[in-house]
Design brief:
The protein is α+β, with helices and mostly antiparallel strands and about 110 residues long. Helices cover about 25% and strands about 30% of the residues. Strands 1, 2, 3 and 4 form a four-stranded mixed β-sheet that branches. It binds zinc ion. The site of zinc ion has 5 residues, from loops.
Length: about 110
């Protein structure tokens, strides 16, 4: 790969990744949260992209992005509110998501007829 100074480069993985479908974004989050990056404070958000944008099979890589809203999985975070407070700098809504197995069980119970 030749060195390049602009992102996203067509033959690289750089740039801000955006998924076209929520399931693809969740798969990305799952891969990273369940591994040793758990509690790294990764966030999901609905975003707008601009600048240089490269389309891929399940979304885009962009030069620039800005969120409409952010979702913060709280699993493994020592202080989710500290992270949420830092994200408030974006000036958009930040929602905390409890993705723990216990929370999933409770949601399944509540959704049951
Ligand atoms: Zn690159």
């Amino acid at each position: 790969m030749p060195r390049h100074t602009t992102a996203p480069h067509p033959f690289c993985a750089c740039g801000i990744h955006a998924a076209a479908e929520l399931e693809h974004a969740l798969a990305y989050l799952g891969e990273n949260v369940e591994g040793d990056m758990q509690g790294s404070g990764q966030v999901l958000g609905r975003v707008t992209l601009w600048g240089r944008v490269v389309e891929g099979p399940s979304g885009w890589r962009a030069e620039k992005a800005y969120p409409f809203e952010l979702y913060l999985p709280t699993d493994g975070l020592d202080d989710p509110y500290e992270v949420a407070f830092a994200l408030a700098d974006y000036g958009v809504p930040v929602e905390l998501l409890d993705c723990s197995p216990v929370a999933a069980k409770v949601r399944a119970q509540l959704a049951a007829p």
